[in-house]
Amino acid sequence: MLNQLLKKIIRTGVGPGRFIMAAAGLTIAMLLILSAVQIQVNYNELLYGKNNQDSIANFLVINKVINGNKRENTLSKEEIEKLKQQPFVEEVGLLTASRFKVSAQSPSDNFPFYTDLFFESVPDKFIDVQSKDWAWQPGSTTIPLIIPNQFLDMYNFGFAPSQNLPQLTQTMVMALPIVLNVSFQGHPVRFTGKVVGFSDRISSVLVPQNFLEMANKQFASQAEIKPSRVVIRTKDPGSPELVQYLKDNGMVTDADKTRFSQYRKIVNTIVNASGITGGVMLLFALLVFSLFIQLTIAATKNEINLLITLGTSPKQLQRFLVKQFLPANVIITFVCLAVVAILQYVLQGYLQKQNMHISSLVSYYTIAAAGIILLVLWITNVSTIRKYIHQTEK
Amino acid sequence: MQIQLHGVVPVPLKDKFSKRDSDLWNTSVTFLPGEWIKIVAPSGTGKTTLMNILYKIRHDYEGSVSWDNKDLKTISRDELAYLRQQKVSVIFQDLRLFENLTARENIELNRVLQKPYYEAGKIDEMAEVVGITHILSQKAGVCSYGEQQRIAIIRALVQPFDWLIMDEPFSHLDIANTNKAATLIAAECRKRNAGFVLTDLDEDSLFPYTKSFSL
User: Fold this and answer.
1) Tell me: the pLDDT tens digits for A169-206?
2) Is A120 within 8 Å of A169 (Cβ atoms)?
3) Domain spans of chain B?
4) Closest CA to A228 of A80, A356, A47
5) Among residues A383, A277, A289, A275, which one has the least CA distance to residue A329?
6) Nearest in space to A336 (alpha carbons), one of A33, A19, A21, A16
7) I need a labelling partner for B82 at 20 to 30 A (CA). Which of A272, A284, A327, B57 fits?
8) How far A37 CA sits from the closest chain B CA (Å)?
9) Which of A301, A310, A387, A394 best tests the B interface by mutation, with the highest count of B CBs <10 A?
């Protein structure tokens, strides 16, 4: 009953038009900020979500830029240590090069070839080839090899047609034994090489690490050399920080894999801008709403004064006024959350068709953001009401 | 509850009362519980000011006023609200009704501001006694002064109180209506063992006053 009477007294002060305007401002701002949060979450999901991952792209081979000024372009220990500490680098694997001369030739005259060769090795976890043959037993003369896929492509589509040679499948190459001659003090030491896989990740002729260690110890003709290439594992090859770091430190990697970073920068900027816009709008909306409350209280100054004179406690009045404004805030929050949820559902369906996967439900972050905003609104409501009731009171 | 005044003088009237004596200004007075007090004074001597000071809506005075030994100037907002709901009721000279509320709503508001002292039906009973039953559903703003004054009287009587402060409560009423209203007020005060402070321009014998002051 008291509330009905208070309502009648206060309502005469401010018309519904102003209330609707204030509520509309708040709704727009709330929609903007909630969608900004949801967009940010979707964006991260698209970037890092398991369904959207490209495993090849997560490994990058990095080397110094070769500009012709230096004879050697190796990576120092410090440079590698620094690289390891970068936030975008998860793991670093050194590519060890062979320090001896080696040649490869065909064992058969039907298919003759001869080439000088080199080896490199890298820890197994950086290799994209799964093969049970990828192992070397000490003492064995059979060496498993991994060669780049590009080699086979170059041969099949460039070399073979020009030399009138047959094209080879992966299986055929893997079946072919290769004679490897390692030069040791002027004499050849003979091994048999066997290709066990083709790598898309590392463009080098790879041998097992333990073999290269042994061979370097035994056959090395030159002093130990610093690595000139490393493989890194990263969550996000398109990360603009990674690209910037490489550029700043005179390093390069496969440009194809990092090209995405350009677009990322642009999208990042847009996403952040939408967040900032939402934030600023929310500030304005809070301002508008608290001005509206002030206006209501100012317009009913005399009535509030008389109520207090008659013995209405400031607490009763505050509770009443909060009850007048807060339900609108709660409703606006829920409506906005519902709208964002619907938009998200629609967006999910649309992106699904483009083979991009996001959740069809609003994120917890968005719900949490709505909760926080509601809390801020509540605090703003209560403090504005308290402040102006005390000001109004003589 | 007792009301005490110590050397109270309103700042605007300070010069005037430094030259002459008064029963209430610049002196110490105690209103004991249940006393029926009449204050008679000509216009411009601060009757309304005194009522406003007693009810704590004016603070521009020297000296101190206490309700039950508590200085009004130090009382908190919430305490004040409690005292106004439970201990002290008031009839203003300028009536102070909500013009947009009906007569009944004006009275009802003061009835439900605290845990109601009376049932809602009591409003009709009292309205009957003072003769305003016919205007209960009219907006207070359109009622005559005489009717508004009776609404204000009933409004003051539907709440619990130890003291009733009345500032020229019958100024707009004829003798017959004044008598009816005074009878009702006396009955309600007796029922609560409550005291009152009433100001007026002239002497009267509407109540068996226990004390009389002039300003």
Assistant:
1) 888 888 888 999 988 888 888 999 999 999 888 888 99
2) no
3) 3-214
4) A80
5) A289
6) A33
7) A327
8) 43
9) A310
